[in-house]
Amino acid sequence: MTGIRPLRPTETADTIFEIDFDRLYSKGRRALLFDLDNTLGRRGMEHLDDRILPFLLSLEERGLRVGILTNRRRNAEGPAMEALRRHFPVIHGARKPARSGFLELLGALHASPREAVMIGDRRWTDILGANRLGIHSIRVRSRAR
After folding, report:
1. Domain extent at residue 29
2. pLDDT of residue 45
3. What is d(CA 123, CA 97) in angstroms, rounded to the nearest whole number?
4. What is the CATH classification number for the domain harbouring 25?
């Protein structure tokens, strides 16, 4: 982590919908690791917002691989998680910022840290964990609306 501050994201965005995914792709980023709570929806949500799944699928159509990395333990088997698991690798109970969850999801996405982007809302879990592995980190300021 030489030269970076461990809690400082590489970039920030208000929501996931404002991220320039084409720019990330042009810079060699191929794997997107999304946090769940307060990134793809409200904390503890049981159902996904109607826009989330089509949006994530559209990213895959553009050549990006999508995975979900969450510390969530409760509601890990609910409708939101089931909908995501049908299409994407999901690691729950990840214990971020521990490296193991990040590395497991990178393996499932067949990606290296240099190819990956972590998108999440929390500095002490999402951003710190990503930065420790050299993963490009994007902090979203508010949940997907």
Report:
1. 11-140
2. 84
3. 9
4. 3.40.50.1000
pLDDT one digit per residue (tens) for the chain, 145 residues = 445 588 999 999 999 999 999 999 999 999 999 999 999 998 888 889 999 999 999 999 999 999 999 998 765 678 888 999 999 999 999 999 999 999 999 999 999 999 999 999 999 999 999 999 999 999 999 655 4
SS3 category, 39: coil
Instruction: State how many domains the chain has.
Output: 1
Q: Is the peptide bond before 97 cis (omega within 30 degrees of 0)?
A: yes
Q: Is residue 24 a part of any domain in this protein?
A: yes
Asked whether residue 94 is domain-assigned, the answer is yes
Residue type for 7, please?
L
Q: Global pTM?
A: 0.92
Residue 72 lies in a domain: yes
Q: Which pairs from 105-110 meet CB under 8 Å and 24+ separation?
A: 105/33, 105/67, 105/68, 105/69, 106/31, 106/33, 108/67, 109/31, 109/33, 109/65, 109/66, 109/67, 110/65
Judge whether 114 and 31 are in contact, CB under 8 Å: no
The verdict on residue 5 lying in a domain is: no
